[in-house]
Amino acid sequence: MVSITVDKAPRTLLVACFLAWKALLLTIAIISPQPGYDTSTRLLFKGHGIRNVEVSSPDVYSPPGTHAPAQGLPDLVMRLLLALTRWDTIYFASIAERGYVYEQEWAFGWGFLKFLSFLGTNIPLTTEKLYNVLIHGIILANVSHLISIILLFQLALALQTSASNGKVYFAFICAALHIFTPAGIFLVAPCPEALFSLLSFAGYLLYVYSWIDTGLQYHGPIQDLYLILSGFCFGLAATVRGNGLLSGIIYFYDALIWLIVSAERLVRIRVFNISALRPELHAQLSSIRQRRLPATVTAGMLVGIGFAGPQYIAFQQFCGSHILEKRPWCHAFPPSIYSWVQSHYWNVGFLSLLSCQTYNEHAFLHPETKSEAPDQDRNAKGLQDNMDFDINRAFE
């Protein structure tokens, strides 16, 4: 019965699954005990008219008469805002409301927060910008997630060249898995992940459309447009999350292929014997037209601009000529505030989890790797000693 429904109306079924899943997550968020161990959310709302709803101590909310009322928001909405404004979302809401103030806040995507700030300012739902930002963020996250599901469905269809009956079913499974993603509540709360997935899937779909129905041949400017638009989407994604820069690898690959073909034509010999490994790849190389290269370079530049643009804005703020005492990262090459903030304030970054400092965590999580001696009793004792040592080191 399900397969028949998938064949007839796959998108409708995806929307139904999406709504049911979101309803479950929202219900869990609303009925979850509050405020919990973290009162940061209520401290954030202090001064923005939060009402005394299940507040455990009088110093975490505004005394009566000091601040404006809660703008007529229903208790259910306020409870939902309290539940979904946690962890990084507190940073997102604060920055979107009043802009970047502290250096460490530049770890969070400039594009996403500026867009939230624009919505909160120009499309008011209440008289408090903070509430506007949060409500718009929740709406944006859920709408973006839904659109990204449909885009992924279309992408899975476009990537399949066969016309088999399982084509739609396969695409449906791919999209359905994106509904029930482990991200869970993060795609409900005002977080950038949903918008990032929307822009990324849109970029990949447009990139596929730049090749689709053309075989190995290049047909004209419409493919150029698709290619440039894909770079534009990836560039926007890079402003939302820094790892969107990795999407530009596909343009680097295309440019590299063109260089290989050009080199082979120039010296009239096969520079890289790729056909020995993948004969179909070399056939593709010989069919690429030089005219596609400008669009490829343009798309790649758009991705780079999306990544570097916000960092240039930060550079002007912290390292401009009017700044007397410049920050250490201003003298680095490249002067990336993103890399500096990730390593200096958050102790994260590329390959940071492979450092010697994380050895104890790996040893603690995988103690079975130390138990290879034949004597089981001795193994158990040695394993316990190793675990005790790791625990003691972890809390030093």
From TrEMBL:
Keyword Membrane assigned: yes
- Region (Disordered): which ranges? 367-389
Question: How does this chain sit within the bilayer?
Answer: Multi-pass membrane protein
Cellular component per GO?
A: endoplasmic reticulum membrane; mannosyltransferase complex
Q: Where in the cell is it found?
A: Endoplasmic reticulum membrane
Keywords per UniProt: Endoplasmic reticulum, Glycosyltransferase, GPI-anchor biosynthesis, Membrane, Transferase, Transmembrane, Transmembrane helix
Q: Carries keyword Endoplasmic reticulum?
A: yes
Q: What is its EC number?
A: 2.4.1.-
Q: Per the annotation, which location comes first and is thus the protein's main one? A: endoplasmic reticulum
User: Top-level EC class, please?
Assistant: transferase
Pathway recorded for this protein: Glycolipid biosynthesis; glycosylphosphatidylinositol-anchor biosynthesis
Q: Where are the transmembrane segments?
A: 12-31, 133-156, 168-188, 194-212, 224-242, 293-313
Residue ranges annotated as compositionally biased, kind Basic and acidic residues, are: 367-380
GO molecular-function terms, A-Z: alpha-1,6-mannosyltransferase activity; GPI mannosyltransferase activity
| Superkingdom per UniProt | Eukaryota
Report the record's Gene Ontology biological process terms. Answer: GPI anchor biosynthetic process
Q: What does this protein do?
A: Mannosyltransferase involved in glycosylphosphatidylinositol-anchor biosynthesis.
Name the family: Belongs to the PIGV family.
Instruction: Report what the protein is called.
Output: GPI mannosyltransferase 2
